[in-house]
Amino acid sequence: MGLFDRISRVVRANLNDVVSKAEDPEKILEQSIIDMQEDLVQLRQAVAQAIATQKRTQQQYNQAQAEANNWQQRAQLALSKGDENLAREALVRKKSQSETATALKTTLDQQTGQVDTLKRNLIALESKISEAKTKKDMLKSRIAAAKAQEQLQNAVGKLGTSTAMGAFERMEEKVLMMEARAQSAQELTGSNLEQQFAALEAGSDVDDELMAMKAQLTGSAPSQGALPGTAQSNTTSSGTPSNSAVDKDLEELKRQMDQL
């Protein structure tokens, strides 16, 4: 392989790469339709020119045929009048016109075939252009959809590496942690309160029960300001002080309560 061949191949490859990158599908589709329409205009002009030539040849053929028939009639007339020389001259003219008509008929047949071919090509090109226009609109819609999808994917891809998105996610995580700590503190506070109230309620029940038992033993209602577990000067229904047996029972109950 020669050096110039290699250089030529490299240059053509680079040019093809540049052209491929520069191609815009929408613009290429539009230009393709324009080029096909220009071809259609040229083909219509060619068909019109071929039809005009065919008609001209048809007229020449008809004229030559008419002249041949006319000289045939003149030859018959001259012969009927006894002028054989004039009849011979008329037949010579008739032969010339017949030969011209024959040549024109051959040309006319060729032109008729060419016109028919051009007409078929014209119809086929018109059909292709109509189909191409429909496909062009469909392809442009698909191109627009593909571009929109590509832009969306690029935007989604950038979200994962975006500084703003990273900061947003960190703040979201921070808020969740703050909410979790607040909920934990609330649960702990609620638990302490419940325990405190439960202790108060338990102590109140024991004190109430103790006061009730002391009232039953002494036969009088407990005084409002008396402290639990302290000795009080109670009297019986007859007004006599409590005996030592009652005090002993009371001390025993207090001891049992302390052991609970």
Description:
There is one protein chain. The protein has 260 residues and is mainly alpha-helical. The protein has a domain at 3-161: Helix Hairpins (Orthogonal Bundle). The protein contains five helices and no strands. It has helices at residues 3-22, 25-80, 84-161, 163-218, 244-259. The longest helix is centred in the middle third of the chain and has 78 residues, at 84-161. The radius of gyration is 62 Å and the shape is rod-shaped. 4% of the residues are buried. The model is unreliable at 221-242 (pLDDT under 50). Belongs to the PspA/Vipp/IM30 family. Residues 47-81, 108-188 form a coiled coil. This is PspA/IM30 family protein.
Q: TL;DR?
A:
The chain has 260 residues and is an all-alpha fold. The protein has helices at 3-22, 25-80, 84-161, 163-218, 244-259. It has a domain at 3-161: Helix Hairpins (Orthogonal Bundle).
CATH topology of the domain at 3-161: Helix Hairpins
Look at the structure and give the CATH class of the domain at 3-161. Mainly Alpha
Succession of helices and strands: HHHHH
Task: Bin the strand percentage.
Answer: under 5%
Mean pLDDT across the residues is 77
**At CATH's second level, what is the architecture of the domain at 3-161?**
Orthogonal Bundle
| Anisotropy-based shape | rod-shaped
Structure annotation, total helices: 5
**Through-space gap between termini:** 111 Å
Give the radius of gyration: 62 Å
**Major pleated sheet:** none
